[in-house]
Amino acid sequence: xxxxxxxVTISDRASTGVYEDLSGPAIRDTINAYLKSPWDxxxxxxxxxxxxxxxxxxxxxxxxxxxxxxxxxxxxxxxRDVTPEATAAVCDKIMDGFGEQMRAVSLKFVxxxxxxxxxxGIRGQSLIINLPGKPKSIRExxxxxxxxxxxxxxxxxxxxxxxxxxxxxxxxxxG
Amino acid sequence: xxxxxxxVTISDRASTGVYEDLSGPAIRDTINAYLKSPWDxxxxxxxxxxxxxxxxxxxxxxxxxxxxxxxxxxxxxxxRDVTPEATAAVCDKIMDGFGEQMRAVSLKFVxxxxxxxxxxGIRGQSLIINLPGKPKSIRExxxxxxxxxxxxxxxxxxxxxxxxxxxxxxxxxxG
Amino acid sequence: xxxxxxxVTISDRASTGVYEDLSGPAIRDTINAYLKSPWDxxxxxxxxxxxxxxxxxxxxxxxxxxxxxxxxxxxxxxxRDVTPEATAAVCDKIMDGFGEQMRAVSLKFVxxxxxxxxxxGIRGQSLIINLPGKPKSIRExxxxxxxxxxxxxxxxxxxxxxxxxxxxxxxxxxG
Lengths: 175, 175, 175
Hints:
Three copies of one chain form a homotrimer.
Chain A: E1 3-10, H1 12-15, H2 23-34, E2 39-46, H3 50-63, E3 68-72, H4 83-90, E4 93-94, H5 96-106, E5 120-123, E6 126-131, H6 135-145, H7 149-155
Parallel strand pairs in A: 1-2, 1-3, 3-6
Antiparallel strand pairs in A: 4-5, 5-6
Helix pairs in contact in A: 2-6, 3-4, 5-6
């Protein structure tokens, strides 16, 4: 089974070309560092519009066959920040532990980490995780949760992900 | 007032006898170690079916008069894991602090603790808490939250629970 | 833009005068210590009735123009505790990080912190935060989350809040 991973940059400005998307590439570089298994990326850069985000997530999960979809941007308290709402709308199950853990880790760096509304959830056989907008914070969050990602993908019927153990150690409970 | 505690093992395999239920007995042993007050158990072993779980929780709370109902199993990301959904469906109030604290404690042992979707909530005069499936993790989670359980049961109008203070110390704020 | 802050004491007993409201004044004293900017308070003392709480929150946000509304009381597991439900009902966005962080901090003092169902959320251009009932716990919770409050208010289009940096340091990320 091929490992396909969706990377969705959600930003009004990046989607209209007002500024360059640095967050999507930061996710790609991180996953390249993490994964020993070969993987394909499916990228999107879209505006902060809930129906557009929902549609992109559905396509990546259901048609593109991504076992993991990573979003960046749109998780704050501002009016245009609707990524968590879009994610919740398309997911069957919400995984509260991801948001809790990502905020707990970000709090070690900035007290404004509590303003992030990042969530994660399961849609069919795909795990969707909201990441922050800033490349530095993206890496901090992924480092915190990625050890649990391969086992989660196993549990929902996805492909076996092998990691570079010197970078990130996937944990799979015995028995 | 008698202390009645419900213990619900939620597992397709245990409910059909494919394997022995070790989790329900682990909960019973833990509560025996914790409680100085006499208590009665009301046990169920049922499959991972949301309507069946909801029905069992309703009976234990409303008819059996359990002030505390402890479930084990069915809290992960897999398709058949629906214990949190069934719990939320029958509860009046969700107590987010229990899930947060149980995951935080389990995280000290395994990074996959973030995959647990355990919740707790109030139905009428009963506190329902989802526990993990593995006996070792059950004890870790109960150790983390049980000090707050007797006071919670006080607040919802249940019986007074006295604990063995050398095993677990119930905390009741003064005034 | 004037800084207006709502302070809502939610308590059956305080609202009927059975006992003196100590929690509202504790919030006022804390904000006086925190803020260098001048601010006006809008106070309410109301019973634990969900429609009454919702109405008070709507008035403070929409008519009184409070950029920040702080509630105290009504966040426990008891039947009359409905402050989180009222808050969720009037908010556009729930900010899970506030509740998580306040419980994590309170847990350092009392194991019953997990019984608090405090939440925070955004309604239009207002941030609403549920605080505990006890003056001592109010200060502990506000100390934990206030560094992120001025930036949150910036992001939702509210007035610029300047803090007394020797008491609490507002954090605003660069760029």
